[in-house]
C-alpha cells in the first residue's frame, strides 16, 4: 500500500500543469444510473458516459470479471492511460488511489481492463469513489482527457449484479463445446473425475436451449488388435451416452459414433501420446 501511494504521488508530480484544465467526460450525479443485464451465461453492469461511450463490467460464466470502456469514437484513448480511483464530490478529504496503468492501442475498438483492475474498480465504486482514466494528447492535441465513472446510485445495481454472478453457470459454451475425456488402457468405465467433467457439460446443455446436437465419438490407441480397439472405442462412446441419458439429456440430440484407432490426435509413439488417444470426444452444436 505504501508503495502504491508513493507511485501515485510520483505520477501526480509528473503531470503537466495544464492537467487542471483537462477535458472531462462523466455523467452528472443527478443523472447517474447503472443498468444491469442478467442471465445464467453472463452478467453486465453498465453506465452510459454522455458524449463519450459506455462503461461496462462484464462477467461471463466460467471466467473472471473484466471491465470494458467502449468509446463512441475509436482511438479517443490510447497509449499509457492512468487509472485512478478519485474521490467523488461528496467525499471531501478522501485521497485518490492509483489502480494502475492501462496500455491502449489507438486501433483498439474498446479499452479492456484486466480482471484484477476490474475488481479494484468495483471496490472503489462501492466505496463511493470514481474510477477515472486519464491521458495526455487527446485526439493528437495537447489536451488532457479524463473519463470517469460515477458512483452515484451504484450500490443497488451492484447488489443485483452480484446476485447474478452467484447464479452463473460454472462453465461457458467455449469451455464445453469441444471436450475430451480420457481412459486407461483397455478400460471403458467412467471414473469419478470423468463424471465430474461430464456433469459440467450436462449442466450447460440443460441450461442452453440453443444446443441442438451433441456428438459423442469414441477412440482408442493402437495397442492390440484393430477390431478389439474398435469395439473398445464403441464401449467408451456408449458408456458416455448412457451417462448423458441417465442424467436427463434427450436421446434425440445425441449422436454416438466410434472410430477405433483411426483418428489419433497425436502419433502413438509413446505412452503419453497413447494416453491422449484413448478418449471420447464430446462436441456441442447450436
Question: How does the helix and strand content classify structurally?
Answer: alpha+beta
The residue fraction in helices comes out at 25-40%
Largest sheet: 5 strands, mixed
For the termini, the CA-CA separation is: 48 Å
Estimate what percentage of residues fall within beta strands.
25-35%
| Low-pLDDT runs | 5-20
Enumerate how many helices there are, as a single number.
Answer: 7
* Strand count: 14
CATH fold label of the largest domain = Immunoglobulin-like
- In CATH, the architecture of the largest domain is Sandwich
Please provide a written account of the structure.
This protein has 286 residues and is an alpha+beta fold. The chain has 2 domains: 2-166, Immunoglobulin-like; 173-285, OmpA-like domain (60s Ribosomal Protein L30, Chain: A, 2-Layer Sandwich). 30% of the residues lie in helices and 29% in strands. It has helices spanning 2-14, 115-126, 154-166, 173-176, 192-207, 226-246, 271-277, and strands at 23-25, 35-38, 42-49, 53-60, 66-71, 79-86, 97-104, 111-113, 130-136, 144-148, 178-182, 213-218, 254-258, 279-285. The strands form 3 sheets. It has a 5-stranded mixed sheet with strand order 1-10-9-6-7. Strand 9 and strand 10 form a beta hairpin. The protein is elongated and about 80 Å long. The model is unreliable at 5-20 (pLDDT under 50).
Amino acid at each position: 500500500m505504501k508503495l502504491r501511494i508513493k507511485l501515485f504521488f510520483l505520477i501526480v508530480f509528473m503531470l503537466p500543469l495544464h492537467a487542471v484544465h483537462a477535458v472531462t467526460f462523466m455523467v452528472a450525479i443527478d443523472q447517474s444510473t447503472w443498468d444491469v443485464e442478467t442471465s445464467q451465461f453472463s452478467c453486465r453492469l453498465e453506465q452510459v458516459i454522455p458524449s463519450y461511450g459506455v462503461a461496462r463490467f462484464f462477467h461471463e460464466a466460467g471466467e473472471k470479471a473484466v471491465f470494458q470502456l467502449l468509446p463512441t469514437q475509436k482511438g479517443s484513448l490510447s497509449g499509457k492511460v492512468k487509472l485512478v480511483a478519485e474521490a467523488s464530490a461528496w467525499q471531501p478529504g478522501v485521497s485518490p488511489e492509483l489502480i494502475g496503468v492501462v496500455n491502449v492501442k489507438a486501433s483498439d475498438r474498446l479499452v479492456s481492463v484486466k480482471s484484477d483492475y476490474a475488481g479494484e474498480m468495483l471496490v472503489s465504486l462501492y466505496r463511493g469513489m470514481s474510477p477515472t482514466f486519464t491521458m495526455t494528447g487527446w485526439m493528437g492535441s495537447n489536451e488532457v482527457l479524463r473519463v470517469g465513472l460515477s458512483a452515484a446510485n451504484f450500490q443497488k445495481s451492484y447488489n443485483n449484479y452480484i446476485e447474478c454472478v452467484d447464479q452463473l453457470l460454472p462453465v461457458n459454451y467455449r469451455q464445453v463445446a469441444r471436450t475430451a475425456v480420457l481412459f486407461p488402457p483397455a478400460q471403458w468405465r467412467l471414473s469419478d473425475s470423468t463424471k465430474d467433467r461430464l456433469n459440467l457439460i450436462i449442466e450447460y446443455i440443460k441450461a442452453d436451449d440453443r444446443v441442438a446436437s451433441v456428438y459423442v465419438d469414441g477412440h482408442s490407441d493402437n495397442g492390440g488388435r484393430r477390431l478389439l480397439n474398435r469395439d473398445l472405442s464403441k464401449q467408451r462412446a456408449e458408456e458416455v451416452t448412457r451417462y448423458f441419458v441417465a442424467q436427463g439429456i434427450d436421446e434425440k440430440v445425441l449422436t454416438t459414433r466410434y472410430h477405433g484407432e483411426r483418428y489419433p490426435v497425436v502419433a502413438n509413439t509413446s505412452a503419453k501420446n497413447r494416453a491422449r488417444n484413448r478418449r471420447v470426444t464430446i462436441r456441442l452444436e447450436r
